[in-house]
Automatic annotation (TrEMBL):
It is found in: Endoplasmic reticulum membrane. May function both as a monomer and a homodimer. This is Uncharacterized protein. The lineage of its organism: Eukaryota, Metazoa, Spiralia, Lophotrochozoa, Mollusca. Its cofactor is FAD. Disulfide bonds join C90-C95, C378-C381. Its main location: endoplasmic reticulum. It is a peripheral membrane protein. Belongs to the EROs family. It comes from Lottia gigantea.
Length: 453
């Protein structure tokens, strides 16, 4: 009898354990059910991109982003929300961004690489000449100048600028050390972040036009490739942000004499956001959209490779600058050998007049998205939202610049008359891509944790 009871208990224990493992396995299978095969509207496969990122790109981009050139980002976190009164600021201390003191910023980054290379005497002479010239103020503006301003405005509007970039000369712009202000869950939640994404998706993100036929039944007209691409880009960005919030989730620990904050992965939160049963069936597609966004930004870096290889990445620390240039060359060589890049020539390829209108609409929608980031109530979330949208905007600028577009086209330093990247654009391009790279790398961790939970 004792042997029977022991055997029964052992059977129930093993059977229960197997059922729990089976349920966990099913959760993992549900969340990751679309992470296989070709990425939508692309020939590249999810599995191929995962291997490339996790084994080759992620370790290199992670190392590069720890360098001074990439870790300091000048941003204006005090800009007013242009769309509504922002009355929902996050009061939690983990929403706060620690800005850098003046003496903490490498002087070459503050002054700009070209100015820093002049001798002190040359800078002094130039400063005196500028002071004499600027002290004699002339307020007259000729008719020719007024016309020139109009030409400049038309030229600026013709550029492929897909997002608003902060004026770095503004008194409200400050340098932030990105390593000291990591992207993670801060406790910012509720109506404010929901309003941000609701505004992005409902007002600025293309969606199918639904027509109601015969009462409750309905059909949706399919989106064109460009509008599908826009929606996937935004969804992929949103997914990446959510993965970071789940990977570094805020927990409060009661130590008896006070609360202590610490961060670790939150598997339940990841499941909530990406399990089809808790995400209205959309979670797996959101994860797949992450790979689309990654592929687009990967292609942008590949296209800009000749330009980037001519950059100095100057911070006045000769050893570090040398290491950064070597690291950039190493990363670009790996990216250039990837055989299945996104083909931007498929976008805006129809009737020229219709394509121009669609491209303008595409650009204006994305610029609105970048402006919405100034409505984020949490400073740390705003910082990373602004950085990543600017990085994506820089990627789009690269894709549609140069003498040609398509998987074999490039932009280089000889094209600077028509195409240039500021230090801020380069910093946001690499940091935004680094966020996507880390997100894809984190998926393996969550897959493992879900299977074990």
């Amino acid at each position: 009898m004792t042997l029977y009871i022991t055997s029964l208990v052992f059977f129930l224990f093993i059977n229960g354990t197997l059922q729990v493992k089976n349920r966990s396995s099913k959760v993992a299978d549900r969340c990751f059910c679309k992470l296989n095969g070709e990425i939508d509207d692309c020939s590249c496969k999810v599995e191929t991109l995962s291997v490339l990122n996790n084994n080759k790109i992620y370790p290199r981009i992670k190392s590069l982003l720890s360098r001074n050139y990439f870790r300091y980002f000048k941003v204006n976190l005090k800009k007013k929300c242009p769309f509504w009164h922002d009355d929902s600021r996050c009061a939690l201390k983990d929403c706060h961004v620690d800005t850098c003191k003046e003496e903490e910023i490498p002087s070459a980054i503050k002054k700009g690489s070209s100015a820093y290379r002049y001798s002190e005497e040359a800078q002094k002479e130039e400063s005196c000449a500028e002071e004499k010239e600027l002290s004699a103020l002339n307020t007259t503006i000729s008719d020719e100048s007024i016309q020139a301003f109009k030409d400049w405005k038309e030229h600026d509007e013709s550029q492929d600028l897909f997002c608003d970039i902060d004026d770095e000369s503004s008194a409200d712009s400050e340098y932030v050390d990105l390593l000291l202000n990591p992207e993670r869950y801060t406790g910012y939640k509720g109506e404010s972040p929901h309003r941000i994404w609701r505004s992005i998706y409902q007002e600025n993100c293309f969606k199918p036009q639904t027509e109601y036929i015969y009462g409750p039944s309905k059909s949706s007209s399919p989106l064109c490739l460009e509008k599908r691409a826009f929606h996937r880009l935004i969804s992929g960005l949103h997914t990446s942000i959510n993965i970071h919030l789940c990977a570094d989730y805020l927990y409060q620990e009661n130590l008896g004499y006070g609360m202590k904050a610490h961060w670790k992965p939150n598997v339940a939160e990841f499941q909530k956001r990406f399990d089809p049963q808790t995400s209205n069936g959309e979670g797996p597609q959101r994860l797949k959209n992450l790979f689309f966004t990654y592929l687009v930004e990967l292609r942008a870096i590949a296209k800009a490779a000749p330009y980037l290889q001519e950059e100095d990445f100057f911070t006045a620390d000769s050893d570090e600058d040398k290491d950064v240039r070597q690291g950039i060359d190493d990363l670009l060589n790996i990216i250039s050998t990837f055989p299945d890049h996104f083909d931007e020539s498929k976008l805006f390829a129809g009737n020229p007049n219709e394509a121009k209108l669609l491209k303008d609409e595409f650009r204006n929608h994305f610029r609105n998205v970048s402006r919405i980031m100034d409505c984020v109530g949490c400073d740390k979330c705003k910082l990373w939202g602004k950085l990543q949208t600017q990085g994506m905007g820089t990627a789009l600028k690269i894709l549609f610049s140069g003498d040609d577009i398509g998987p074999d086209s490039t932009v280089n330093a000889q094209q600077k008359k028509h195409f240039q990247l500021t230090r801020s654009e380069i910093v946001t391009l690499f940091n935004a891509f680094g966020r996507l790279s880390k997100s894809i790398h984190s998926l393996e961790m969550f897959k493992s944790l879900l299977s074990k939970s």
